[in-house]
Fold this protein.
Amino acid sequence: MKLGVCYYPEHWPKSRWVEDAQHMQRIGIEYVRIGEFSWSTIEPEPNELHWQWLDESLDIFHAHGLKVILGTPTATPPKWLVDRHPSMLAKDEQGRVRGFGSRRHYTFASLEYREACRRIVTLMAERYGQHPAVASWQTDNEYGCHNTILSYAETDLVAFRIWLAEKYGTIAALNKAWGNVFWSMDYRSFDEIELPNLTVTEANPSHRLDFQRCCSDQVVAFNKLQVAILREHSAGRDLVHNYMGFFTAFDHHKVGQDLDVASWDTYPLGFLDQESIYTEEEKHAYLRVGHPDFGAFHHDLYRGCGKGRLWIMEQQPGPVNWAPHNPTPANGAVRLWTWEAFSHGAELVSYFRWRQAPFGQEQMHAGLLRPDAQEAEAAQEAALVVAEVKVLGESLGLDADELMSLPSAGKVALMFDYDACWSLDIQPQSRAYRYLFWCYRLYEALRELGLSVDIIPSDASLDTYELLVLPAQAHISPALQVRLNAFKGVLLAGPRTGSKTDTYQIPNNLAPGPLASLLPLTVERVDALPNHTQPAVSGRWGSGSLLHWHEQIKTALPCLLKDDGGNPVLMGEGRNFYLGSCIDNGLLKASLAKLAEAAGLSSVYLPKGVRVRERGKVIFVFNYASHEVFFEPEGAELVIGYRHLAAAGVSIWKKR
Amino acid sequence: MKLGVCYYPEHWPKSRWVEDAQHMQRIGIEYVRIGEFSWSTIEPEPNELHWQWLDESLDIFHAHGLKVILGTPTATPPKWLVDRHPSMLAKDEQGRVRGFGSRRHYTFASLEYREACRRIVTLMAERYGQHPAVASWQTDNEYGCHNTILSYAETDLVAFRIWLAEKYGTIAALNKAWGNVFWSMDYRSFDEIELPNLTVTEANPSHRLDFQRCCSDQVVAFNKLQVAILREHSAGRDLVHNYMGFFTAFDHHKVGQDLDVASWDTYPLGFLDQESIYTEEEKHAYLRVGHPDFGAFHHDLYRGCGKGRLWIMEQQPGPVNWAPHNPTPANGAVRLWTWEAFSHGAELVSYFRWRQAPFGQEQMHAGLLRPDAQEAEAAQEAALVVAEVKVLGESLGLDADELMSLPSAGKVALMFDYDACWSLDIQPQSRAYRYLFWCYRLYEALRELGLSVDIIPSDASLDTYELLVLPAQAHISPALQVRLNAFKGVLLAGPRTGSKTDTYQIPNNLAPGPLASLLPLTVERVDALPNHTQPAVSGRWGSGSLLHWHEQIKTALPCLLKDDGGNPVLMGEGRNFYLGSCIDNGLLKASLAKLAEAAGLSSVYLPKGVRVRERGKVIFVFNYASHEVFFEPEGAELVIGYRHLAAAGVSIWKKR
Amino acid sequence: MKLGVCYYPEHWPKSRWVEDAQHMQRIGIEYVRIGEFSWSTIEPEPNELHWQWLDESLDIFHAHGLKVILGTPTATPPKWLVDRHPSMLAKDEQGRVRGFGSRRHYTFASLEYREACRRIVTLMAERYGQHPAVASWQTDNEYGCHNTILSYAETDLVAFRIWLAEKYGTIAALNKAWGNVFWSMDYRSFDEIELPNLTVTEANPSHRLDFQRCCSDQVVAFNKLQVAILREHSAGRDLVHNYMGFFTAFDHHKVGQDLDVASWDTYPLGFLDQESIYTEEEKHAYLRVGHPDFGAFHHDLYRGCGKGRLWIMEQQPGPVNWAPHNPTPANGAVRLWTWEAFSHGAELVSYFRWRQAPFGQEQMHAGLLRPDAQEAEAAQEAALVVAEVKVLGESLGLDADELMSLPSAGKVALMFDYDACWSLDIQPQSRAYRYLFWCYRLYEALRELGLSVDIIPSDASLDTYELLVLPAQAHISPALQVRLNAFKGVLLAGPRTGSKTDTYQIPNNLAPGPLASLLPLTVERVDALPNHTQPAVSGRWGSGSLLHWHEQIKTALPCLLKDDGGNPVLMGEGRNFYLGSCIDNGLLKASLAKLAEAAGLSSVYLPKGVRVRERGKVIFVFNYASHEVFFEPEGAELVIGYRHLAAAGVSIWKKR
Ligand SMILES: [Zn+2]
Ligand SMILES: [Zn+2]
Ligand SMILES: [Zn+2]
């Protein structure tokens, strides 16, 4: 368990660099991420390469025992490059060029820009691939930030036509797969196909889904190009990219396949304020710590994208600048977030940024240091974590590396699938339904029961799990079907599971499609509801309300919950269960508790705001409430903290 | 009273066609609408015409005694046609081309596209004009759907300049009519005139109104072109177009003049959810049946556009896919809607669609059959209606054709005028005011009083009416003035009546302009209010609140209602009355009841959610409430249903 | 104290002109503004100049003793001019050309359009500069109306590059000032710089701020060009421009430097309805009189832009047409507004417009006359004011000119700075914070304490003030710092004061930057809050809530208010105080009352809706409440009105 920080030597006079490195050391920071926005400093004029500043900073870090995560600077191509290759710019859905003047001004599909990236990454990798300070490389920065996955420029159209031709072979196959006969949308050749924007009404959902897939694949290819260069010149270093919160526009599992570690950038307060997933009540209650499951959900999600390895590349250290409102974190929140990350398997937590910049777009974004180089609150909390990690290691008899490799996998898995996300959000039927939010609410309920959850891709092995939740696995591939049939634990499939074919059609046997053998039922009709109507539901497992999505199902399976018309809502027997509707949090928890019991797992209703996570023999307890809460896990002894947890408090326990 | 269905042979394997026709027959369906989106199947390549599939399906329908309504396929031109004539595409108000990829990708003003339509419609009419299965033709599909009446492309500009030159003759006449001196907006020639979009602030309202009229006239011309061809090649068949709900962007009366029947597409749940006319309370109360006056209002409106003949071309049979939320209808709702349509004079109710398509944009739109070809709920309700029609006919001693020709006109008329709608909505003064909504609320109040209402155009004969309501007849033409002067019944003119000249100016004598002789009063000033301020109103006829629009009037007429400053709100004597403000539903009902009484009509305050409609000697009673209601009309005996109507219940009575 | 009116001879037949002039005279009107939209009447064809109508109208006004304010017609260039110079058109932020068809269709930066303006203004000035009726010239009309300050056309880009080159000299200086290193945004030459629109995410705030400044400077230059011509040909006449309410997009102080008088266009009801600054409760309470501080705030603001001289060029006389809802004013409101203006130093109140036009965009905008030439309510109220002015003059023993020159400056100053406004709104941190609104709420609180306030520019002399409020003076220039150090009165600096350098960077010593010597404190961190969280604040001076913006401050100064964590909120001693947060109205009033006391000023908590203003020895009392209120100022005797003020009532007192 290590700490890191994001740093920009190019923003500060050289005279500060040594001082900063010493200060990082004092706090206990071991990793520094640099370089990812520095292209114009490296190459201020075409082919005029300024390496000296970077040489010197790397040497300083090395001299102070700091390991460097070096970023490729491709998220911020300089103006001269853009002027030479104007076709590298993206276009938004309205057809407007997205110009220079901020960052991420390129489309992934641009071959001209890929060539420019190949060149600069090669130059960097050749120069620093074997530098002793360089422990890792970050490719680009936050793929897709500012809504940059879908682009509607000419270059994207070319790429899309090629992608479709490769996928379908013949235009007849595409017409059939998309059902283009529907509104005389048939094409005679791939060259007739347009991008699915600026149509009179919505484009064919199959068309939209394939365009999303194509754009996602452009990201994969763009990343692969950099990975290949870095592997060649800097073998043995961890390759990583920094993902974002609540962001699903490309397939992170696919990108993750080519990297060594998954990392993400966690801003609990900004996302609480910004995201429509949260209620006004939640936004108020968790204003200064973030929602209790925000960090956890993404830690578990991205650990699943990183083949089990997780870093936090950017951890919010204070108020940020980009949310609609930017409050200060509670005292202790930075420490809480850091421990939460460790408890989910993070090897490294790196704060963004070292020092608040007094200029540019993010001048109101806090750092560990203030703009005047004094320590901000978060610096002290980071130092406290360093001390506590030592205490924990001593208590467990483990050194730092052993701590880092404590197992983090659980017995409960929730399947998260980017393709399912795109499919279902293209036609949500009720504006109140979104795939991501439903996954999140399922995860929240599991976690409120004290369960440690893995979030897994649809091609993951299921062998180690006792309970598996498929929130809404739109398309069930043959391979997944095989693994589900072989699964020995308890399975819960949620609404919309198996409701689409691979090319966005309704299966011949209706939903749940290929799962009907495992779950003998038919979804006959869907009742997609506005918030103002929440019908009652009740049965052997509890009572509550239906929300947003409610399937009318025909089945002979035993029903654990029914709606007020007597229709099945939650049904199943033995080890396979199906939930046909979104249901309220209370009933969801009650149902999941029953399923956990069936799976031989013990669960507990945690106090509001409290969360628990196990990692190896360590139990972490977190209090996200804004008042003191008492909690002690069973069969464990206290190592750090108190049974009475203060607001934003953490306690750490060792299993007996 | 017949049932029909919309069907797409091109979506299904040939092997299904006979089976489907037999199934339709079994249910009792007599009409099938086909063809309207099939251009790319008919003509997959330019000039390569595939008629065989259509030949065969027509023969199958004919063999099974099904009558066909054949749609011209001009709402979905194929990609190759668009690529040949890119200027046929519309531009939206922001100047963006509205491209291929869904439907309705053309502008009505395009002469190139009209020529393409002339060709394909001629080919179809020549081939099928005399086919024994073809009973009727539908031109295109849902003119204006997806906001396609106003288009801002170059071809529209050309058409507009020609239209203006024809209307005004000289540019001086136009400048004067528009008042262009106002902001130095004078033009020197028709070629200087631009479309009224992308101006710095709002364009001249006279300019906007004429553009709306021109665009509406383009629809009329576009439809006329198809009508002429069909009349030539398929004489004797009913020509029809399918209009939409709450849609006013072209003059349906003008289009209707060229057709034999008016039809419309009724989706009570989608419109309830989508339209801002309804309150949150209404959206909740009527979630599963739609608002009690939604269907009725449009039935009466479109019967008035169809010279007394009305069809329902598309009747919602289950959840749809396009509203923000798409709930399932109540049990019985499809039957309720079908009978409501018959009670307003519909000869035919055709369900959209026969079978839910598993692909394309509308794959979540229910049909009578599910995607797996099993019957959905609505199929049973349709079959029930067929049986009930038989019972009703027997009870009345009428055969099917006699039932269809039962008289449907009433004694109360509400005047609906598209030109008035455009005029008043261009400058509503209060965002809370809209012409259509005010008409709807007047209609609702009349209907809550048990009255059967005709909705008539401004050039209709008034001879048969006892009570005439002019909701807000902005411009009073000389011809209308003559008919109003001659009218023998009771007249109520609402706020904004007579407030504009033909070219969008204030009349010299102020509102009500030419009506001042009939209604001696002057509208001195207008108080246009937000929702939060609803001043009190009271007088001899009741008390309540003013809403949104409140005129300050000088008159010597007796006042039945006054505002709290003593200003006249409802005034008149003898047979002519003027209402200067929008008023709340309770007071509106009380006032209309008084007027009905003055007109010698008896009215009754119906229970909440209950509606009644008379057609000939039959009285229909509908319960839109979600609970049981007791109601029996006076002087009638029960033929079908119960005095205690269940939720979504219908009872049918015969006058003694 | 004079009355005027806006008139459009070109809208009416010549036969009306004499009649209108006589009617104005009868009411007591002395000034007439004309001409500002008449270009197409003056010059219907290029170089074909029609002066006769204007010659004749000027002669008629002169013959009737009416003084003319002659408008240059540059806000409405005719179509032929636009067609000749299409590059004169602005582009909006989305890159769309803002075309002909309404008004203000030009960008200030267009040299072609400036040349056209130079020509037409010269022609007018040559012809009428010495006409005896012409007392004043108005340049153009409402600079910036309809969001026309920022334009993104090619001509604007050219102007911006020149402006930047002049400001920074070298591109290196610009890169440093903007902090372009931040995201590789460095430029190699001024020709690489683009406009800050259509970037992928927000552009550099320094970039945005400079663009705003550049656009503001274009307005200054545009106005200067006309001023120079008018000074040359019409020396001795007052030059004036008419500003707008709640409009800050250009620096009115800079434009005002070149003119003789500041005027503005006041529409109290339209702005109440339209502006998000007001709560729903305020919108309801003040529906028919406007918010009590709307007029006052702008009168004081613009008097400060006019070197102490203020006119009202357009005063709302009845319902307008452009707000979301357009109610009628209360009886007496027009009189109230007129007296409020006089009480703040207005020399002239001119009503917009003389007669309601029956055509064009504003046909629903009331005038003193109705479209049928009858007097509307406001005409009587204007006549009443004329009579009351006479009474007041007699009571004070002053003639009309002496009344006009009564002193209007106060002892309390609030500093309003356009550059600060732009700076802080570019990055508000909390969407609930806006510079203008915070200034307004401070002004409101001062005025609710009965204080008469001057609103001054940042370069104003401070010598005459006892209390000075800096709401949020983002950048403290060296010159201002000198004056603040020398200031002898009580100073209150609000949150964000001194928080930015001149080029939008954080000062090295953090906020309050250069003011730290006067106010020894450091703003360590900012808590930017949503509306739902309003932490408690309390201390020696009262208790209440924090809103939107809350600074965490380190200081040794005594604290008058602290937050619930004990952090300083309001601090200071002697004569210098700092408020680090926005606070609620009650606590703001309590705090300002303490500061007024410290400054030796007496204040009083006025009844809700009541406002008081002193001018010389006259005290004006206004009742904006919708019910009767009792109020008498101390030590004064009643001249006009009553101690019990009716709704919208005014009383006028003479100090003893
Ligand atoms: Zn980001
Ligand atoms: Zn439609
Ligand atoms: Zn304006």
